[in-house]
Amino acid sequence: MVRRMDGPAHVLVVDDEPIVRDVVSRYLVRSGFSVGSAADGEAALEAFEQEAPDLVLLDLMLPRIDGIEVFRRMRSRATTPVIMLTAKGTESDRIAGLELGADDYVAKPFSPREIVARVRAVLRRAAADGGVPAGDEPLDLDGLRIDPRSREVILRGDPVSLTPKEFDVLYLMASQPRTVFSRLRLLEEVWDIAFEGDPSTVTVHIRRIREKIEADPSRPRHLVTVWGAGYRFEP
Q1: CA 132 to centroid of chain Cα atoms
Q2: Domain count, the chain
Q3: Stretch (H or E) spanning 174
Q4: In this structure, which long-range contacts are made by residues 139-144, counting pairs with CB atoms below 8 Å and at least 24 apart in sequence?
Q5: What is the pLDDT of residue 191?
Q6: Domain span holding position 160
Protein backbone atom coordinates (compact mmCIF):
# COMPACT_ATOMS: atom_id res chain seq x y z
CA MET A 1 0.00 0.00 0.00
CA VAL A 2 1.15 3.53 -0.78
CA ARG A 3 0.95 5.98 2.15
CA ARG A 4 0.11 9.63 1.67
CA MET A 5 2.93 12.05 2.36
CA ASP A 6 0.89 15.21 2.96
CA GLY A 7 -2.65 16.38 3.58
CA PRO A 8 -4.85 15.47 6.56
CA ALA A 9 -4.43 12.12 8.27
CA HIS A 10 -6.94 9.59 6.94
CA VAL A 11 -8.94 7.50 9.42
CA LEU A 12 -10.91 4.39 8.46
CA VAL A 13 -13.95 3.90 10.72
CA VAL A 14 -15.15 0.28 10.81
CA ASP A 15 -18.42 -0.40 12.65
CA ASP A 16 -21.63 -2.16 11.71
CA GLU A 17 -23.77 0.45 13.50
CA PRO A 18 -24.65 3.30 11.08
CA ILE A 19 -25.16 5.82 13.89
CA VAL A 20 -21.71 5.09 15.34
CA ARG A 21 -20.04 5.42 11.93
CA ASP A 22 -21.88 8.65 11.19
CA VAL A 23 -21.28 10.37 14.53
CA VAL A 24 -17.62 9.37 14.82
CA SER A 25 -16.96 10.29 11.18
CA ARG A 26 -18.52 13.74 11.56
CA TYR A 27 -16.49 14.50 14.69
CA LEU A 28 -13.27 13.39 13.00
CA VAL A 29 -13.98 15.50 9.90
CA ARG A 30 -14.70 18.54 12.11
CA SER A 31 -11.35 17.91 13.81
CA GLY A 32 -9.46 18.06 10.51
CA PHE A 33 -9.19 14.40 9.51
CA SER A 34 -10.26 12.79 6.27
CA VAL A 35 -12.47 9.77 6.88
CA GLY A 36 -13.54 6.56 5.20
CA SER A 37 -15.93 3.97 6.62
CA ALA A 38 -16.92 0.32 6.35
CA ALA A 39 -19.84 -1.64 7.82
CA ASP A 40 -18.41 -5.18 7.86
CA GLY A 41 -15.12 -7.04 7.92
CA GLU A 42 -14.91 -7.74 4.22
CA ALA A 43 -15.60 -4.12 3.28
CA ALA A 44 -13.05 -3.02 5.90
CA LEU A 45 -10.27 -5.05 4.27
CA GLU A 46 -11.17 -3.69 0.84
CA ALA A 47 -11.16 -0.11 2.13
CA PHE A 48 -7.87 -0.73 3.93
CA GLU A 49 -6.22 -1.68 0.65
CA GLN A 50 -7.81 1.08 -1.42
CA GLU A 51 -7.59 4.01 1.02
CA ALA A 52 -4.29 3.23 2.81
CA PRO A 53 -5.49 4.87 6.04
CA ASP A 54 -3.15 6.37 8.60
CA LEU A 55 -5.22 4.84 11.42
CA VAL A 56 -8.10 2.39 11.73
CA LEU A 57 -10.94 2.54 14.28
CA LEU A 58 -12.02 -1.11 14.33
CA ASP A 59 -15.10 -2.56 16.01
CA LEU A 60 -14.56 -6.12 17.22
CA MET A 61 -18.16 -7.26 16.64
CA LEU A 62 -18.44 -7.26 12.85
CA PRO A 63 -20.51 -9.31 10.39
CA ARG A 64 -18.91 -11.45 7.66
CA ILE A 65 -15.38 -11.32 9.13
CA ASP A 66 -14.94 -10.60 12.85
CA GLY A 67 -12.78 -7.74 14.09
CA ILE A 68 -9.97 -9.90 15.46
CA GLU A 69 -9.51 -11.63 12.09
CA VAL A 70 -9.73 -8.28 10.27
CA PHE A 71 -7.02 -6.96 12.58
CA ARG A 72 -4.77 -9.97 11.90
CA ARG A 73 -5.08 -9.52 8.14
CA MET A 74 -4.45 -5.78 8.34
CA ARG A 75 -1.33 -6.30 10.45
CA SER A 76 -0.03 -8.90 8.04
CA ARG A 77 -0.03 -6.20 5.35
CA ALA A 78 1.03 -3.04 7.23
CA THR A 79 1.83 -1.63 10.68
CA THR A 80 -0.99 0.92 10.48
CA PRO A 81 -2.08 1.98 13.99
CA VAL A 82 -5.36 0.39 15.09
CA ILE A 83 -7.70 1.47 17.89
CA MET A 84 -10.20 -1.22 18.77
CA LEU A 85 -13.80 -0.42 19.71
CA THR A 86 -15.20 -2.91 22.20
CA ALA A 87 -18.54 -3.42 23.93
CA LYS A 88 -18.45 -3.59 27.72
CA GLY A 89 -18.23 -7.17 28.93
CA THR A 90 -16.04 -8.39 26.05
CA GLU A 91 -12.80 -8.44 28.03
CA SER A 92 -11.50 -11.61 26.39
CA ASP A 93 -11.76 -10.05 22.92
CA ARG A 94 -10.15 -6.83 24.15
CA ILE A 95 -7.25 -8.74 25.70
CA ALA A 96 -6.86 -10.76 22.50
CA GLY A 97 -6.64 -7.53 20.51
CA LEU A 98 -4.04 -6.04 22.81
CA GLU A 99 -1.98 -9.22 22.72
CA LEU A 100 -2.02 -9.12 18.93
CA GLY A 101 -0.61 -5.60 19.06
CA ALA A 102 -3.53 -3.16 18.93
CA ASP A 103 -2.38 0.36 19.76
CA ASP A 104 -5.33 1.23 21.98
CA TYR A 105 -8.94 0.36 22.65
CA VAL A 106 -12.07 2.30 23.61
CA ALA A 107 -15.06 0.68 25.32
CA LYS A 108 -18.61 1.44 24.21
CA PRO A 109 -20.50 3.58 24.95
CA PHE A 110 -17.90 6.29 24.38
CA SER A 111 -17.75 10.01 23.82
CA PRO A 112 -16.88 11.11 20.25
CA ARG A 113 -14.54 13.67 21.83
CA GLU A 114 -12.68 10.83 23.52
CA ILE A 115 -12.34 9.05 20.18
CA VAL A 116 -10.83 12.17 18.60
CA ALA A 117 -8.40 12.55 21.51
CA ARG A 118 -7.35 8.90 21.30
CA VAL A 119 -6.85 9.14 17.53
CA ARG A 120 -4.64 12.20 17.94
CA ALA A 121 -2.63 10.55 20.72
CA VAL A 122 -1.99 7.35 18.75
CA LEU A 123 -1.04 9.28 15.61
CA ARG A 124 1.39 11.41 17.64
CA ARG A 125 3.02 8.27 18.94
CA ALA A 126 3.21 6.76 15.47
CA ALA A 127 4.73 9.94 14.02
CA ALA A 128 7.34 9.98 16.76
CA ASP A 129 8.21 6.33 16.03
CA GLY A 130 7.36 5.34 19.58
CA GLY A 131 8.83 8.46 21.11
CA VAL A 132 12.38 7.10 21.01
CA PRO A 133 14.99 9.65 19.91
CA ALA A 134 16.72 8.42 16.76
CA GLY A 135 20.16 9.30 18.09
CA ASP A 136 19.96 7.20 21.26
CA GLU A 137 22.55 4.44 21.59
CA PRO A 138 21.62 0.76 21.88
CA LEU A 139 21.30 -0.69 25.36
CA ASP A 140 23.30 -3.84 26.22
CA LEU A 141 22.01 -5.49 29.38
CA ASP A 142 22.93 -9.03 30.44
CA GLY A 143 22.71 -10.54 26.97
CA LEU A 144 19.79 -8.34 25.97
CA ARG A 145 20.44 -5.73 23.29
CA ILE A 146 17.80 -3.07 22.62
CA ASP A 147 18.43 -0.79 19.65
CA PRO A 148 16.08 2.25 19.47
CA ARG A 149 17.31 3.24 16.02
CA SER A 150 16.43 -0.04 14.30
CA ARG A 151 13.82 -0.93 16.95
CA GLU A 152 15.39 -4.38 17.20
CA VAL A 153 15.78 -6.55 20.28
CA ILE A 154 18.40 -9.30 20.40
CA LEU A 155 18.46 -11.83 23.24
CA ARG A 156 21.69 -13.85 23.46
CA GLY A 157 22.18 -13.55 19.72
CA ASP A 158 18.62 -14.34 18.71
CA PRO A 159 16.14 -11.71 17.47
CA VAL A 160 13.05 -11.11 19.59
CA SER A 161 9.81 -10.17 17.82
CA LEU A 162 8.02 -7.41 19.72
CA THR A 163 5.00 -5.36 18.74
CA PRO A 164 5.61 -1.58 18.55
CA LYS A 165 4.06 -0.97 21.97
CA GLU A 166 5.94 -3.88 23.55
CA PHE A 167 9.19 -2.38 22.27
CA ASP A 168 8.26 1.07 23.62
CA VAL A 169 7.49 -0.31 27.09
CA LEU A 170 10.69 -2.35 27.22
CA TYR A 171 12.93 0.44 25.95
CA LEU A 172 11.43 3.04 28.28
CA MET A 173 11.93 0.86 31.35
CA ALA A 174 15.35 -0.51 30.35
CA SER A 175 16.65 3.02 29.68
CA GLN A 176 15.80 3.90 33.30
CA PRO A 177 16.83 0.77 35.21
CA ARG A 178 15.49 0.22 38.74
CA THR A 179 13.00 3.07 38.28
CA VAL A 180 9.50 2.04 39.36
CA PHE A 181 6.86 2.72 36.72
CA SER A 182 3.23 2.64 37.75
CA ARG A 183 0.74 1.36 35.21
CA LEU A 184 -0.76 4.85 34.90
CA ARG A 185 2.68 6.35 34.21
CA LEU A 186 3.28 3.77 31.48
CA LEU A 187 -0.11 4.61 29.98
CA GLU A 188 0.88 8.29 29.92
CA GLU A 189 4.39 7.81 28.53
CA VAL A 190 3.87 4.96 26.06
CA TRP A 191 0.24 5.28 25.04
CA ASP A 192 0.08 9.05 25.64
CA ILE A 193 -3.18 8.58 27.54
CA ALA A 194 -4.14 8.63 31.18
CA PHE A 195 -7.78 9.67 31.24
CA GLU A 196 -10.02 6.60 31.31
CA GLY A 197 -7.07 4.45 30.30
CA ASP A 198 -7.37 0.81 31.41
CA PRO A 199 -4.32 -0.34 33.40
CA SER A 200 -4.92 -3.90 32.16
CA THR A 201 -3.53 -2.68 28.84
CA VAL A 202 -0.14 -2.36 30.55
CA THR A 203 -0.55 -5.68 32.39
CA VAL A 204 -1.08 -7.53 29.12
CA HIS A 205 1.97 -5.95 27.49
CA ILE A 206 4.22 -6.66 30.49
CA ARG A 207 3.14 -10.30 30.45
CA ARG A 208 3.79 -10.61 26.73
CA ILE A 209 7.25 -9.04 27.01
CA ARG A 210 8.13 -11.42 29.85
CA GLU A 211 7.10 -14.38 27.71
CA LYS A 212 9.56 -13.22 25.06
CA ILE A 213 12.62 -12.15 27.07
CA GLU A 214 12.52 -14.00 30.38
CA ALA A 215 13.93 -17.50 30.87
CA ASP A 216 11.07 -18.14 33.32
CA PRO A 217 8.21 -15.64 32.83
CA SER A 218 6.62 -16.72 36.10
CA ARG A 219 9.82 -15.67 37.92
CA PRO A 220 11.03 -12.68 35.88
CA ARG A 221 14.65 -11.60 36.11
CA HIS A 222 14.33 -8.27 34.28
CA LEU A 223 10.72 -7.03 34.34
CA VAL A 224 10.04 -7.21 38.05
CA THR A 225 6.71 -6.48 39.74
CA VAL A 226 6.85 -4.00 42.61
CA TRP A 227 3.73 -4.92 44.54
CA GLY A 228 1.34 -2.04 45.04
CA ALA A 229 3.50 0.29 42.93
CA GLY A 230 4.09 -1.04 39.41
CA TYR A 231 7.10 -2.51 37.61
CA ARG A 232 10.83 -1.90 37.30
CA PHE A 233 13.58 -3.13 34.99
CA GLU A 234 16.52 -4.94 36.58
CA PRO A 235 19.63 -4.92 34.35
Answers
A1: 15
A2: 2
A3: helix 164-174
A4: 139/171, 139/174, 139/175, 141/174, 141/177, 141/222, 141/235, 142/221, 142/222, 142/235, 144/174, 144/213, 144/222
A5: 75
A6: 131-233
- For residue 165, the surrounding DSSP H or E stretch is helix 164-174
The pLDDT confidence band at residue 94, using thresholds 50, 70 and 90, is low
189 in a structural domain? yes
Inter-residue contact 95 to 198 (CB < 8 Å): no
Neighbour count for residue 43 (Cβ, 10 Å): 18
Verify that 158 and 108 share a domain, yes or no.
no
Q: Is the pLDDT of residue 3 over 80?
A: no
Mean pLDDT of the chain: 85
Q: In what order do the strands lie in the sheet with 158-160?
A: 139-141, 144-147, 152-155, 158-160
167 and 181, same domain (yes or no): yes
| 72, burial (CB in 10 Å: exposed 0-12, middle 13-18, buried 19+) | middle
For residues 117 and 162, membership in a common domain is answered with no
C-alpha closest to that of 190 among 179, 180, 44, 201? 201
Q: Tell me, what CATH number does 22's domain have?
A: 3.40.50.2300
Same domain? 36 vs 99: yes
pLDDT, one tens digit per residue, over 11-68 is 999 999 999 999 999 999 999 999 999 999 999 999 999 999 999 999 988 998 999 8
